[in-house]
Amino acid sequence: MVDQAKAHLVSDEGNDGFWQLVLTSQHATNGRGQEAEITQALNVVADWLHHAMDLLVRNDVNINAAHNKVKHGLSVRARNDRRLTFTTKAPHADGTVPLSSLIGDEAVDIFDGVTMDYLARAPKQDGIKQGLEISTLNLNPTKMLAETWMMAVAHAAMFHVAAAEHFPNGDVPIADFPPLPLSPTPEKLLGEAVVGMRYPITTPPDGSPLSRTTGVAFRTQFVPFELRETWSPGVVVDG
To answer: What burial letters (b/e) apply to 113-152, b meaning 16+ CB within 10 Å?
Structure first.
């Protein structure tokens, strides 16, 4: 369904008729003289609908499993004491890590706030049942609230239009049409924010080679990397 909806939205027919899904004829008529703002609002709504659909089907980090785990309260752990930073500067020979290597231009924060860990079976890969993996979602409360609100506004507008068409006589009360925001788009609000990270802990049940490796998921891309079983403690020092 998501594939069909996305294909329709990017088609010429979908582009020409999209406003009819989001605006009633009355709202379109009342907006005469404000065509530029209406066009901008429709583009913002369309961007957030695409973002919502991407979240629904994204499986490089198993977001659907996170929803189910939270809903049922199983295999979930929330934390606010973790920081994970990638840096190009190695620790000093004495085991100290200069603070500048963690906050400078050569450092990239992956997790630095509230996170959620959960255990789940990975989605099938090329039709092959996968093993278990631990995933960590990056939860920024402020951005999450804004993100949720923008998607809710987009869906509220579409449901208002659908309800108005289904009850054209006005004899059934329906929710008011929401004001359509002119910004932000997902790109402006989220940028290339880290969505989460996955770490496989078992191989596929049929014994086939591991195909879902460790990696970090950003908003528009997934970056795999090799996690070697070598580590050393370090003490962060001012410098």
So the answer is: ebbbbbebebeeeeeeebbebbbbbbbeeeeeeebeebbe
